[in-house]
Amino acid sequence: MMSKVLILPGDGIGPEIVAEAVRVLDAVNQKLDLGIETEQGLVGGIAIDAEGSPLPESTMEKARRADAILLGAVGGPKWESLPMVQRPEKGLLGLRSQLELFSNLRPAILYPQLADASSLKPEIVAGLDLMIIRELTGGIYFGQPRGVRQLEDGQRQGYNTYVYSESEIERIARSAFDTAMRRDKRLCSVDKANVLEVTELWREVVERVSADYPEVELSHMYVDNAAMQLVRNPRQFDVMVTGNMFGDILSDCAAMLTGSIGMLPSASLNAKGQGMYEPIHGSAPDIAGKGIANPLATILSVSMMLRYSLNQPEAAQLIDQAVGRVLDQGLRTADIMSEGAQQVSTQQMGDAVLQAL
Amino acid sequence: MMSKVLILPGDGIGPEIVAEAVRVLDAVNQKLDLGIETEQGLVGGIAIDAEGSPLPESTMEKARRADAILLGAVGGPKWESLPMVQRPEKGLLGLRSQLELFSNLRPAILYPQLADASSLKPEIVAGLDLMIIRELTGGIYFGQPRGVRQLEDGQRQGYNTYVYSESEIERIARSAFDTAMRRDKRLCSVDKANVLEVTELWREVVERVSADYPEVELSHMYVDNAAMQLVRNPRQFDVMVTGNMFGDILSDCAAMLTGSIGMLPSASLNAKGQGMYEPIHGSAPDIAGKGIANPLATILSVSMMLRYSLNQPEAAQLIDQAVGRVLDQGLRTADIMSEGAQQVSTQQMGDAVLQAL
Ligand SMILES: CC(C)[C@H](C(=O)O)[C@@H](O)C(=O)O
Ligand SMILES: CC(C)[C@H](C(=O)O)[C@@H](O)C(=O)O
C-alpha cells in the first residue's frame, strides 16, 4: 500500500530539523519497505517570499492528496510587520482549517533521561505522561464576526467571536474519549462554564457524549484551575480536552513542565485519519542556520505520523526506541544539554538516530 | 478623615477568614486611629438564599458608598446547578462591573519562609515577586452578543464575544505602566496578536501609551508563550498586563508557582481609587466550617486595601510585618503546613497576627 507524505519545512530552523526527520523517515521506509512517497512544498514565510502567499494553492493541492504532512515551523521577524491575513501563521491556520484537522494531540511526556531539565521538582514531574486534546478548527481562532470597527464616539473597538456548535464539540469529545480509552481512561474537560455560555454548551455536550463511554471517568475543570493544577500536580491528569484557545495556552504550559520542549511532537487529525505532524516548538529564528537546533521533536513527529495516519505502529516504535537509545547514550543538542552529557549538532543527532535504528 | 469599608464574607470559608481579617483591620484602626467604619453585606450564595439574588440592591447601595470592600469568596456546590445568571459568581462579576473595578492587581509573591511549598525548584522561584495586572470589566467576560442559539440545521451553537475598545485598553495600560513605575520598571503585555484582531488592537494601544512612560521597558508576549515562560523562568517578569480571560488563567498559574495560594491577596480598583479586596483562592466548600482555612490571604488583602484605597501605607506595613513575623515563628495553617512547623487553626492564626501587631 503506497502512501504519500508532504514535507513542509517552513521557516527558521524548520528546514534543518525537517531534513533530519526526513532522513529518519526514509530509513524506516526502506528498512521496512513501507512504500512511502514524499514530496516537498512551501508554507509560511518562505512561501510568502517565493509565491506571495503563506499557503499557495500549489501547496494546498499537494496537501489534499497527501495521507500525511510533516511540518517544520513557520514565522519569523522578517514577516512580523505584515498585516495579519498575510502572515506566515495564516499558512498554518489555513492548512488546519481547509483540511479540517480538528483534533490536535499534544502529548507532554517527560523523558526520564531529561528529568533534570524541568523547572519543577523531580517528585512532581517524574514519569509525566499527559495527553492534551485541543480542538483546532473552531473556537475563537476562526469565529466570525471578527475585526476592528469604528465606534460612534470615534474610537476603535477590536472584536473576536468564541463560537462552538454542538457537532463541533461532539466530534472533538469523541476524539478525546477514544484517546482516553487507549490510555488510563480518565478524561478531564476544561472550560469556563461559570462565565462563558459557549463553554456551558461545551460542558453539556461532553457530558452527553460520555454516556457512550461508560468506562471513561470524566471530570470537568475551569480553565484557571486547570492552569493551577498543571503546575501543582500535573500527574493527576491522563487526558485533557479543551477548545482551541484554552488548548493553545494549556498545552504549552504542560509542555514546559517537562523542561524540554525540543522533544515534543504533535499531531493534528481530521475525520479521515489524514494528519499534519509538527514539533510543538516554533521556528526559533535566533538559532536558525546554526545547525544546533534539536531535531528530535520533528523525528518524534514522524513516529506519530506512522502511528496515527500511516498505520505503521512497528515503524513508529522503531523510531521511539532509537530516540530513547540516543538519549541513553548521553547525546544532547544545546537546548537539552546538561553536565556530563555530550553536546551534538542537529545533524549529528540525526546521524545518531539513524545509527540506532 | 473617615472612611467606610464594606465587609462581604460570602460563602464557604469566606465568613471564617473574613472574621480574622476584620479583627486585624479593627486592631490597626484602633491602634493608629484611622477612623475606619465597617458595615456588613450579603453577596454570592448566601445572598441568593437570603434575598433571591447573588447581588441584592441593598448590597450594591452599600458598595457604592464604601471606599473599599473586603470580600471573602463566593460559590459552592449548593448553587452550581442554577442557571448562569443566578449563580453566586454573578455577584462578584456584578460588583466588578457596576463599580467599574477595571484594574485587577494580582501579586504572585513567594514568602521565603514557605519556599518549600512550591512545586518548582527553589532556584527557579526563590524571591519571586511578580505583579499581574488583569483587565477586569471588559473582554470576553462581559462582551455582547453572547448566549446559545439554534442554527438552521437544528443544532445549537454557543457564542461569546471578546471585545475591547481603545479607551478600555488605554486605561488598563496606564494602570500597568503606573504600577511598573513603582516597581522595577519592566512591563510585559500579553496578547495573541498573531491570531486575534482584538489583541492586535490591544498591542497597538499599549505601544502608544508606552510613549508616555519612556522609563518603562515594554515587551510583548503571546499568551501561549507567556504560560510557558511563567513555568520556565517566572523571575524574568516584573509586571505583566493582559485582558480579563488571559489574566484569569495566567494569574492563577503564576499564583500556583508559589505553592501557597492561601497567602495571596488581590485588589480590584476603579478610576476613583475605590477598590475591592479579596484572597485569590476560592470558597473551598470542602473545608468550610472546620476552622482550618488560612486567613492570611484575606488579612493581606486588608493590607492592600489600606495601601491602595485608604491611603494608610504605615498601617499596611504593620500588617505585612506581623504576617512575616508569624511565619517566622513557624505557625502554619494546614494548607501551608510543613515538617517542623506548628499547625494552627484559622482563629489561632488570626490571634497570632493580632499578637504580632
Ligand atoms: C503559530 C500560532 C498561530 C499557533 C497557534 O496559536 O495555534 C501556535 O501557537 C500553535 O500552538 O500551534
Ligand atoms: C469566580 C470567577 C467568576 C472568577 C473569574 O473568573 O474572574 C475567579 O476565577 C477570579 O479569578 O476571580
TrEMBL record, chains A, B:
SMART domains noted in UniProt: Iso_dh (SM01329)
Pfam families: Iso_dh
Pathway: Amino-acid biosynthesis; L-leucine biosynthesis; L-leucine from 3-methyl-2-oxobutanoate: step 3/4
Known catalytic reactions: (2R,3S)-3-isopropylmalate + NAD(+) = 4-methyl-2-oxopentanoate + CO2 + NADH
UniProt remark on cofactor binding: Binds 1 Mg(2+) or Mn(2+) ion per subunit.
This enzyme's EC code(s): 1.1.1.85
Cofactor requirements of the protein: Mg(2+); Mn(2+)
Alphabetized UniProt keyword annotations: Amino-acid biosynthesis, Branched-chain amino acid biosynthesis, Cytoplasm, Leucine biosynthesis, Magnesium, Manganese, Metal-binding, NAD, Oxidoreductase
InterPro entries for the chain: IsoCit/isopropylmalate_DH_CS (IPR019818), IsoPropMal-DH-like_dom (IPR024084), Isopropylmalate_DH (IPR004429)
Residues with site note (Important for catalysis): 141, 192
Compartments where found: Cytoplasm
Occurrences of domain Isopropylmalate dehydrogenase-like (ranges): 4-353
GO BP terms: L-leucine biosynthetic process
Amino acids binding substrate: 96, 106, 134, 224
GO molecular function list: 3-isopropylmalate dehydrogenase activity; magnesium ion binding; NAD binding
Cellular component terms per the entry's GO annotation: cytosol
Positions with a binding annotation for NAD(+): 76-89, 282-294
Residues the record lists as binding Mg(2+): 224, 248, 252
Similarity comment text for this entry: Belongs to the isocitrate and isopropylmalate dehydrogenases family. LeuB type 1 subfamily.
Record's subunit section: Homodimer.
Job of this protein: Catalyzes the oxidation of 3-carboxy-2-hydroxy-4-methylpentanoate (3-isopropylmalate) to 3-carboxy-4-methyl-2-oxopentanoate. The product decarboxylates to 4-methyl-2 oxopentanoate.
PANTHER family given in the database record: 3-ISOPROPYLMALATE DEHYDROGENASE (PTHR42979)
Name of the protein described by the UniProt record: 3-isopropylmalate dehydrogenase
Organism in which the protein naturally occurs: Pelagibaculum spongiae
Gene field: leuB
